[in-house]
Structures
1.
Amino acid sequence: MTNTTRPLALKLRDHIKAAFLAGVVLLVPASASAQTVTTYATGANNPFSLSFDRGGQLYVAEPAFDRISRVPVGGGSAALLVINTPGSGQGGIIGPDDALYVPNNNGEVYRYAPGATTADASAYATGFGTELYALAFDDAGRLYGASFGSKTIFRTPEGGGAASAVCTLPTGSFTIVISAAGNPLAVSQSDARIYQCSGNTVSTFGVLPDGESYSLTKDAAGNIYSGLFSGPNAGEIYRFPPNGGAPALVTRIQGASIYSLAFRNADLYAGDYNTSRVLRVANVAPPATPAPVPTMTEWAMILFAMMLAGGAVLHLQRRRQFA
């Protein structure tokens, strides 16, 4: 090797080493963002269910008082919106059309158009069974409801109407969400077990630690979240994979009784029964999937390609010397 080509070869070796180390560094996943819990809304007595409209306003259902309150965009004090739904309202969600849907004790659902008040309720669906608290729409626009009294999940056609039974659960449930696979999920208040209905077949989607649970929600990636209301793990919120399985602890809110959950963007919102507040847990989006690690064969191919490139550089250098 000549005196001219030796420095070039050394530089090439250093570049290969740097590229190799850079590749290794890129494979190290970034640490998860720190989570911050703040008060998002106050004055929500018995915050049983939470639901956002398209504009970012939060609706809080308070079935113990037969009313719905609304929180302005960005949080603040909950203001009374709807009271005295026919048949005694027991919950409420915002539908895909941005209207408010409120179930009652008779297994009926009433619809309030965006901006409507109590006087504007219109019948939307019937036949859900008694003690209807939980509602959820699927992507096809069909409305599901979990009847606590009959331990049954019902479904209406798109556009509402008469509901028909989908499956019967081992226990009653106060909440429901539709999984990424399109199956209704309901959490058992008594044993903190999440059940899944696929057709008329009921299976266990996931199991929480000991305690009572009333809450379920879903993020944009299809992960399922549930919190604990009471017991030794009260205040803890867990995340389940889209297809079920083992839970992962997301956060523990000291002294809280998680009554309801809702997801918006990367933030999780939790209704705390003890303080009549809605809490915001920032940066709850699950960590990104780490980049795949190259195999030994792939690393060998990468290094071989670098060596070929280096050889080409040396060849060009020699040609210039003897040109």
2.
Amino acid sequence: QILESGNAKITALFCSKSEFSGEPWAKKFGCYN
């Protein structure tokens, strides 16, 4: 998975628009809503 590899970071912009922003895996990678 790309997030696990460290090659992708979740940005605040992504989080604000993503339906995944509240998901545990998203929060693990720094996504807070």
3.
Amino acid sequence: MIEVDRLTKYYGPVAAIRDVSFSVEKGQIVGFLGPNGAGKTTTMRILSCYMPASSGTARVAGYDVFEQSLEVRRRIGYLPENVPLYGDLTVAAYLDFVADAKGLGRAERRRRIGEVMERCRIEDVEGRLIGRLSKGYRQRVGLAQALIADPEVLILDEPTIGLDPKQIIEIRALIKSLAGEHTVILSTHILPEVSMVCEGVVIIHRGRIVASGSLDRLMEELSPVARVQVQVEGPPELVSASLRALRGVTGVESRGVTDGVGTFVVEAERARDIRRDLVQLVTEQRWGLLELRPVGFSLEDLFIRVVTGEEHEETGEEGSDVAQAAGPRSERRPEGRRPEAPRADGQRRDQMDNQPRESEEEPRA
């Protein structure tokens, strides 16, 4: 449904994104995750036909976002980070305006406005001016306008930013309910948002994709170690030292001692199951084993590993397999780069590269 291949965007000599490639299957909700300034908004703007790429291709619902932008626009709903609402219109009047702009007939407009207001739970404010709504309600109106034409693809850029905890929970539940009916790409820098809402994740850092895939597969493939948690009744320092000495153990983290019982998280080489050795150690030392269970990696663990690996790769240090596989990174436009062929209207993509940006993603020198 969404196919991105080697997408690059320059602002002057600086690359905001470089060689970005990923795909999203029909009906999936995929998180586009990265820190502020990583290139998320630039990518979302290219996918929504708001701005052209400098090179590379992107297809949405089978149409090229540059060569067939009108067809793409007919098939997407876009919720930008800063929703362009008209504060002097009522909710119902604004949605009617958007539906009319999308080409819906009068009867179809009435039907769709009723459906999206019910789904986004804004029926009770349909007659109120948008400028007098709370941030949470304005965000709901923004999502309603993205849904008004029943698009195949939804592009959501930081949909919960600035909301209070209750509003965040409500918006996340609403987005999750869209799975299957719509293909959703959700841009965010909030880790829990991805783990709670999305089936897959694409991680971008400093303009480059450093990991992508289903959350379960990434946890499996990108975690070089296995972890188990044990609770042992015995001398804490001796227990910790003995655990570290076991074959295949790469690290031991102490998580405190309560009433003589220490809790430890033991990391070991993934290919080696150390549970038998742990039991044997505790038995031989005549300690008490109160707990032994596997501990999974969180999305935060994964994010830190791939981002740290990318930074190590850039400084010449040994980093993660993901960062090493990504290859060398260049931030600046290659000298002597051949300009692209002119479009039918005589304008090249690289002639559009210096248009002003309205995002937090400032070009890096």
